[in-house]
Design goal:
23 helices; two-stranded antiparallel ribbon; mainly alpha; 514 residues; 2 strands
Length: 514
């Protein structure tokens, strides 16, 4: 029943949006629908006593068989990790819907207002179906199907509702970059589409070879096979590059900043909150558990790429003047923590990776949401043009500052718990060796750099006094509500991490490489 509602409710919302001509229905129906779906998931957690060390392992349902010869089924499986990912997905999508309530229009026409709200909410609903479907999919074919449903609407969202930004272009490729109109929404939409399309092709061939060589496309069936049957270097590299690109793993990351920068606020929230986690989900559901031995062989490579992500993203964020690009490169940096933690190969580190997925998703949603409100109120996101916002927009400023502190891992926030577990996991895995010390220094350096660029933004935009008194303009009530919800979950995880650990239970075992 829970599977039925998770996938059906967004579809019902799309149908309602398509036929409705009432602006309030178009604005609030998707939020209510996703809220009901989230309530069902929370009820399921309590009903199955998942957070109380219950006996719940997983919920498997096979709706029907598509291709019997290859064991391709419309099958789904909810386990403990997917429950947490579903909660993150729902909170991310709800935040994205809230960001469209005050959508900036091209004209003041009621019809234009109606059409644009309808279009962007339908796109968000489609993405939610794709994300929820791939999270709970138990078949490689079904995983790829929902993967594409989640990725395809991105082009339409950026090209239709995105922003044109001023980007400084320099270096040996200046002429080429100017020719492609870097910073425009067209450039951003085509770049992200090309990157993700190529990645999807690699993933398609990787999953096809994996399923055919294993004799089944069912993930649970493949996991019971001997590892040597699927210990293929070709499949590993196809999936590593494909999933790595979708997660903006260095050096396949360059689509992410341009995608974030040119996307509407809702798009940035979805990209950073959950869509960039699609590749990580691929690692968790497919690459690590199904290709255990070969992933362990290349673990040092993944650790190296993840470490570059952390340092490169943080240093680049330091150089940005646009708050949205600061958040984009911060997101790029924090993705590295997840991959680094997944390679620790112990309970603490892997639990830290799951914590970081949830924590980063919530924090970056709050950060991008507040940046979107700043742009709506001030008409700019440039740090050099903003000042004294604690005086002119105290509530908005408070939420941004909270997200900044959570990003640096301030105690009692989810960021502190996840980063502490990751560093602890690294120590347990590598102990006080030279490599272990180096790997502990990398996330520590990332935390220090995050502190610098976040405090710089806070000081320049919110604390630095303006030369003249500014008009007080602050957040609307609906914006305050969703920010309070996100802050609640960020603090809840920080104060009661044991509840999340109880939900995870022994889920780490499938991600320990032997």
């Amino acid at each position: 029943m829970i599977l039925f509602f998770i996938l059906l409710l967004p579809l019902v919302s799309i149908i309602t949006l398509s036929i409705s001509k009432n602006i309030n229905v178009i604005k609030f129906n998707p939020i209510i629908t996703m809220g009901i779906s989230l309530g069902i998931i929370i009820y399921f957690i309590f009903d199955q006593q998942i957070a109380s060390n219950g006996n719940f392992d997983n919920l498997y349902i096979n709706f029907y068989t598509l291709i019997p010869a290859f064991d391709v089924n419309m099958s789904f499986n909810i386990d403990r990790i997917s429950i947490l990912l579903l909660i993150l997905s729902h909170l991310t999508i709800i935040t994205a819907f809230f960001s469209t309530l005050n959508f900036k229009l091209i004209s003041d026409s009621y019809e234009q207002n109606l059409i644009r709200h309808k279009q962007i909410n339908i796109l968000i609903s489609l993405i939610s179906i794709g994300i929820n479907g791939l999270i709970i999919s138990n078949n490689l074919f079904v995983f790829f199907l929902f993967y594409e449903i989640a990725a395809i609407p991105i082009f339409l969202m950026i090209s239709t509702f995105g922003y044109n930004l001023k980007r400084e272009v320099s270096g040996p490729f200046t002429a080429i970059l100017k020719f492609f109109n870097v910073g425009s929404k067209e450039y951003g939409s085509y770049k992200i589409t090309i990157y993700l399309f190529v990645a999807s092709i690699l993933i398609f061939f990787g999953l096809a070879i994996l399923g055919i060589s294993a004799g089944s496309f069912e993930i649970m069936n493949i996991s019971n096979l001997d590892s040597y049957k699927i210990n293929s270097n070709l499949v590993f590299w196809l999936l590593l590059i494909g999933f790595g690109t979708h997660s903006a793993l260095w050096p396949f990351h360059t689509w992410a900043p341009d995608g974030h920068g040119t996307a509407p606020t809702a798009g940035s929230i979805i990209f950073a909150g959950i869509l960039m986690k699609i590749g990580v989900i691929g690692f968790i559901k497919i690459l690590i558990p199904l290709m255990n031995e070969i992933t362990l062989d290349y673990s040092n490579l993944i650790i190296t790429l993840a470490s570059i992500n952390i340092v490169y993203g943080a240093f680049t964020a330091l150089r940005q003047d646009d708050l949205k690009y600061v958040a984009a490169y911060a997101s790029l940096s924090h993705i590295g923590y997840i991959f680094l933690a997944l390679m620790t190969n112990n309970k603490t580190g892997i639990d830290g990776a799951i914590f970081q997925i949830i924590s980063h998703g919530l924090i970056i949603c709050l950060l991008f949401f507040t940046v979107g409100v700043i742009y709506r109120i001030k008409g700019t996101r440039l740090i050099s043009e903003l000042n004294s916002m604690l005086d002119s927009s105290p509530i908005l400023s408070s939420f941004f500052i909270f997200s900044a502190f959570a990003s640096i891992g301030f105690p009692l926030t989810s960021g502190f718990v996840s980063e502490f577990m990751i560093i602890n996991g690294i120590y347990k895995s590598f102990e006080p060796t030279n490599l272990g010390i180096l790997l502990i220094c990398i996330p520590t350096l990332g935390i220090l750099l995050t502190t610098v660029y976040m405090f710089r933004a806070v000081k320049d935009c919110f604390i630095t006094l303006a030369n003249k008194i500014q008009q007080i303009i602050d957040m609307d009530k609906d914006e305050i509500i969703i920010c309070f919800v996100l802050c609640f979950f960020i603090l809840f995880i920080g104060l009661f991490p044991s509840i999340i650990q109880d939900i995870l239970n022994e889920s780490y075992k499938g991600l320990v490489m032997k």
